[in-house]
Amino acid sequence: MKQMKLVFIFPENIVEEPVTYNLISEYGVRVNILRASIDPGKQGRMVVELSGEEIQISQGLNYLENVGVRVTPLGQNIQRLEDRCTSCTSCIPHCPTQALDVDRESWNVTFDPEKCIVCFSCLETCIYNAMSVEEQFA
Questions:
Q1: Dihedral sign of CA atoms 84, 86, 88, 89 in order
Q2: What's the pLDDT score for residue 137?
Q3: Three-state DSSP class for 110?
Q4: According to the model, what pLDDT value does residue 76 have?
Q5: Do residues 33 and 68 share a domain?
Q6: Quick check: helix, strand or coil at residue 15?
Q7: N or C: which end of the chain has fewer CB within 10 A?
Q8: Residues 90 and 67 in one domain
Q9: Given this model, what pLDDT does residue 47 score?
Q10: What is the predicted pLDDT for the residue at 136?
Q11: What pLDDT sits at residue 138?
């Protein structure tokens, strides 16, 4: 099974269409919506994690292209800067996916980038600036 994190950008003419539903029902792709901003009559943007067989995802991405959805790889990652982190744990309750946690033996904050949805909550919370955004370029 293949997994990938992508950004879908919906133009105003299809923002109210059941594109995600069609992707799931017609192509069998599992869609996990990580973050979304949809304004009816305007543009929409969704950060998603797709999973499924490679052929299903390929066909689903072709469908999205044909209906006018722009698809790009998720171009940002969150990084934990260990030299700045004091393990104060103030970030932990703000992380919606539990990508940030505390090791109960060492009481150090841990970060699992695989769980991160790049919601920026940790950046807004950390007074030590121990979390940063890393841009990715293809």
A1: positive
A2: 44
A3: strand
A4: 73
A5: yes
A6: coil
A7: C
A8: no
A9: 86
A10: 54
A11: 44
Question: Residue 44 belongs to a domain with what CATH number?
Answer: 3.30.70.260
Claim to verify: residue 6 and residue 69 sit in the same structural domain: yes
Q: What single DSSP character describes residue 24?
A: H
* HSE of 75, CA atoms in CB hemisphere, 13 A: 7
**27 and 80 together in one domain:** no
- C-alpha distances (whole Å) from 32 to each of 7, 52, 82, 84, 118 are 12, 11, 29, 32, 14
Alpha carbon separation from 42 to 69, 85, 87 (Å, rounded): 13, 40, 42
Question: Per-residue confidence of the chain (138 residues) as pLDDT tens digits?
Answer: 898 888 898 998 888 889 999 999 999 999 999 888 888 778 888 889 999 999 999 999 999 999 999 998 876 788 899 999 999 999 999 998 899 999 999 999 999 988 888 888 898 899 999 998 876 544
Starting from the edge strand earliest in sequence, which strands make up the sheet with 44-52, in order? Answer: 30-38, 44-52, 2-10, 70-73
Q: Which domain holds residue 7?
A: 2-73
Note whether 89 and 108 are same-domain residues.
yes
Residues 80 and 32 in one domain: no
